[in-house]
Automatic annotation (TrEMBL):
NCBIfam families: GguB. Residues 1-23 are annotated as: Disordered. This is Xylose transport system permease protein XylH. Part of the binding-protein-dependent transport system for D-xylose. Probably responsible for the translocation of the substrate across the membrane.
């Protein structure tokens, strides 16, 4: 899908010339189209295949408006965790404690709001503050004390699970007030009217498609201007049309259910912000540099300790966001909340294309990986598959994803 064809417009040319070149650059060679960008395109193909498979196996129930809404509500907190996890993995780290932090932050919020009667937003702010403090705790030991992240966060998994039990006195707390529940269970519906559907949801979907099309075209123009590899223009158009069709179909189903979930808006904002952070900022490039080649990053003047500290602070913050969403979704706090969430987040990052050695991965890829896990889990639940079988399938999918990453690297090395 990629090529080394150079732009007919010099790098210093006008944007209009680059835009014209963007209409003709690329290649239609079948082998290049299939293999040239296999790492990035494979997960999207896998998602489409899995969605189609479960649509057939469940007689279309998995694609019903109500079920699609349930997938968004049930797995949103895993997708939030996957954003922070993929950034950590890109930087060459991992966090095994996020499930315990989800439980602790939800517990702190529940104690303040349910037991002590504070306003719901006090609980949210307190949960976020605790998450940031946990991230700073991990960041200190990893970045400044030099202890491997695996050990620090393994200790944190035990430490913060124990603190959760202490905070809750080993009992569950519920229910939250209605305002708090709206975080994960609220919807925006009826703002633009519509007969039998929510027009506002369709408007947001169309706006997202238009924004995506403009963004990817500008990226294509910029790459051509700097004589970088791009896909052929027909393939580029096909990709934009396909993504647009999928997004609008998704919005159509939501519009015919309960409207636009508030938690989906939160997730979309996070994806947009962190997508820009990782791709467009100095901090994001430094994270990639540290994970890709630590000695070179240090020689280039990257403040490795500072960057490592802040990626853990960020992970703590996103764990708290996930904790608020999960406690809102479950309408309470439980001592066992967040169990195994860290494994789901790690799996989403690796299935989405992150490399075990660091330096590779994207936020969007992690989202797709998380959606693959969500669709698989939801589909198997609709089919009544035993929980033990579900775990086996998830484990095999993760193993295949990592094996594919290893094979792809060897293929690329052989090509050189």
């Amino acid at each position: 899908m990629t090529t080394t064809k150079r732009s007919s417009t010099p790098a210093t040319g006008s944007s209009g010339g680059a835009s014209a070149a963007a209409l003709h650059a690329g290649t239609s060679d079948p082998r290049t189209l299939i293999l040239g960008n296999l790492r990035q395109s494979g997960i999207y193909i896998a998602l489409v295949v899995i969605v189609g498979l479960f649509a057939v196996l469940t007689d279309g129930v998995s694609l019903s408006p109500g079920n699609i809404t349930n997938i968004v509500l049930q797995y949103s907190y895993i997708l939030v965790l996957a954003i922070g996890m993929v950034i950590l993995i890109i930087g060459g780290h991992i966090d095994l404690s996020v499930g315990s932090v989800v439980a602790l932050t939800g517990a702190v919020s529940a104690v303040l709001v349910i037991r002590e009667g504070h306003p719901w937003w006090i609980g949210v702010l307190a949960a976020l503050a605790v998450g940031v403090a946990v991230g700073a705790w991990h960041g200190f030991w990893v970045a400044y004390a030099g202890i491997p992240a695996f050990i620090v966060t393994l200790a944190g998994m035990l430490l913060f699970r124990g603190l959760t039990l202490r905070v809750l006195d080993n009992i569950s707390l519920s229910p939250f007030p209605a305002e708090y529940q709206q975080v994960a269970a609220g919807f925006l519906n009826g703002l633009f009217g519509g007969q039998g559907f929510d027009a506002f949801t369709l408007f947001i979907g169309a706006f997202a498609v238009a924004g995506y099309a403009v963004a990817v075209f500008r990226t294509r123009v910029a790459r051509i201007r700097y004589e970088q590899k791009v896909e052929s223009f027909p393939l580029f158009v096909a990709r934009v049309v396909l993504v647009g069709a999928v997004v609008m179909a998704f919005a159509w189903q939501l519009a015919h259910a309960r409207g636009l979930p508030i938690v989906l808006i939160v997730l979309a904002v996070l994806v947009l912000v962190y997508g820009l952070l990782t791709r467009r900022t100095v901090f994001g490039r430094q994270v990639y540099a540290i994970g890709g080649n630590l000695p070179a990053a240090m020689l280039s003047g990257v403040r490795v300790r500072t960057v490592n500290f802040w990626v853990f602070v960020n992970m703590g913050f996103l764990s708290a966001v996930a904790g608020v969403i999960y406690s809102s979704r479950s309408n309470g706090a439980q001592p066992a909340a967040g169990n195994m969430f860290e494994l789901d987040a790690i799996a989403a990052a690796f299935i989405g294309g992150a490399a075990v050695t660091g330096g590779v991965g994207t936020v969007v890829g992690a989202m797709v990986g998380g959606l693959i896990m969500a669709v698989m889990s939801n589909g198997m639940q609709l089919m009544g598959v035993d929980q033990s079988v579900q775990s086996v399938v998830k484990g095999l999918v993760l193993l295949v994803a990592v094996a594919f990453d290893v094979w792809n690297k060897r293929r690329a090395a052989g090509a050189r």
